[in-house]
Amino acid sequence: MTMRRFLILALSLIGLFDSIYLLWVYTSPSHPLVCLGTGCDVARASSYSQLWGLPLPLFGVAMYGALALLAFGESLGGSVLYAVIRYATLAIAAVGFIASLVLSGIEAFVLHAWCAWCVLSAVTVVLIFAFAIYGVARPGPPPQGSAALSAARGQFILFILALIIGIPAFIRLSRSGEAVPAPQQPAAAALDARLVRPASHATGDLQSPVTVVEFGDLECPMCGLAQKTVLKMLQQYGRKVRFVFRHFPLTSIHPQAEKAAEATECAGEQGKFWQAEELFYQKQPDLSVDALKRYAAQLGLDTQKFDECLSSGRMAARVQQDIADAKALGVHWPPTFFVGHQMLIGAPDYTELSHLLDQQLADHAAVAASAQTPGSSSAPSTSPAKPSASASSGTAAAPLGSSPFPSSNPGTTLGGNVFSQAQPQSALACNPDEAKLEQPTLIHTPEAEKLFKSDPKPLFVDVRSAQDFAKGHIPGAINIPVEEIQQKWNTLPRNQVIVFYEGGERSGSPDDVCAFSRAAARIALSNGFDKARVKVYQEGLKGWESAGLPVAR
């Protein structure tokens, strides 16, 4: 029986090393990954690499750590805890065994790729499960006296040897392997073939030489913020540029986004794609199927036709085509824009966007003027080829010079020079990798109230717009809109508890990693703020008001 405990501890330490290494890899796409073949990269990039917004290896660390402690505790627990520890070991190993079966099935039948590190973990937990069953079936007498001390001594020596071997091995692994490459500008041929399809929805000047294409996610709050810039752009440039919207639902963290995308296509069948897109952005907190059907009635659609279209799933292929094109063009997260052939990642700053559009329009005007001059030659256009207006619109275009959306509400847009870099703004990007970063502590209304009444008081930071802040906020709170956090984080005190919050309509979900309050808190953490002093009030102002707490106006 001593050998059984020794083997369980040894296997648990192997599994712990495996999980810690994978957790380190999963916390950042820039970390190199050592693996045999490409299965590890496929597993890391898939939506199955997370559970409840947390990287899957984190659960492995917790499981193997618990098994190692139980194996060590069985030697010293005495007769009272002997049976309890054996059954606890069996229960944890059984959960790990079932999880490994499920994950191995996903690798075999869904991903069609095998991750060597995942296989190692699966084999390890199967062996631990087998030894745990044996320990319950044939328990033997509990170790006592000198036998218990001898067993504990041997396990402690094993632990020391694991550290001596594991630490250098981890350092070696962390310096080897290949990092995930940064997104690159797609080739011109791929852009011409995939950027705009004949059935893509377009509005504005359908004959313009300058095309702006957005790959967006209707449930993504950053896309909702980018929508304000798009509306303003269409108001100012509706007579000059063509705007195309394509779907890129990030289903791993936005489970309602894909069905919402299909719903806009169903609305498009009745000539109201753009109205549906704008309304769904406004209704991001609830994009369930039942809610989508209510919104269809609100838009004045034939609800019977809409319901049949949505239930049939016949628009799924169109959404999947957009997703396939996006991935082929190197799009990894929404929103991603293309102005001409230039990829721009993140929610755009309107000033920079307008500057870029003016520049491209001026370049095309110069080429056109040069072409009309006798004896001159013009350079070929670099913008995507434009189908005819009837083919490219996918729906009726709005009158030139007016927004195609029924209720435009341009507001504050994101700053931060997002168009001058290939990567999105740190912590503000809406992508699965954000779930792998260090996350702030989430608190609920009772703890927020307790902090509010404590001495010294924390600093509440409202990340909504100035207009929303003026309508009502937690007393004593300051207002730093989320789009300004990148520039103003250094104005926050480091020696005081900081509580970020927003309206509460979206941020109430525990897995909503894209919530603005959490994005703002991640920026603080990434800049060295003490995690113990950075918190996010999950229910936000909505929860505060519901609890009958005071609101300043």
The domain tally reads 3
Number of helical stretches of at least 4 residues: 20
Taking the alpha carbons of the first and last residues, their distance comes to 69 Å
Q: State Rg.
A: 28 Å
Mean pLDDT: 81
Q: Regions with pLDDT < 50 over 5+ consecutive residues?
A: 376-427
How much strand content do the residues show?
A: 5-15%
| Shape annotation | globular
According to CATH, the fold-level topology of the largest domain is Glutaredoxin
Main sheet specs:
5 strands, mixed
Task: Summarize the amount of helix as a percent range.
Answer: 40-55%
Structural class: alpha/beta
CATH H level of the largest domain: which superfamily?
A: Glutaredoxin
Write out the strand line-up for the largest beta sheet, numbering strands in chain order.
Answer: 3-5-4-6-7
> Which CATH architecture of the largest domain is right?
3-Layer(aba) Sandwich
CATH class identity of the largest domain: Alpha Beta
Break the fold down into its secondary structure elements and pairings.
Layout: H1 2-26, H2 39-45, E1 50-51, E2 54-55, H3 56-76, H4 78-111, H5 116-137, H6 145-174, H7 188-194, E3 201-204, E4 211-216, H8 221-237, E5 242-247, H9 257-269, H10 273-282, H11 289-298, H12 303-312, H13 316-328, E6 336-339, E7 342-345, H14 350-372, H15 389-392, E8 441-443, H16 445-452, E9 459-462, H17 466-471, E10 478-479, H18 485-488, E11 498-501, H19 516-526, E12 534-537, H20 540-546
Parallel strand pairs: 4-5, 8-12, 9-10, 9-11, 11-12
Antiparallel strand pairs: 1-2, 3-5, 4-6, 6-7
Helix pairs in contact: 1-3, 1-5, 1-6, 3-4, 3-6, 4-5, 9-10, 9-12, 11-12
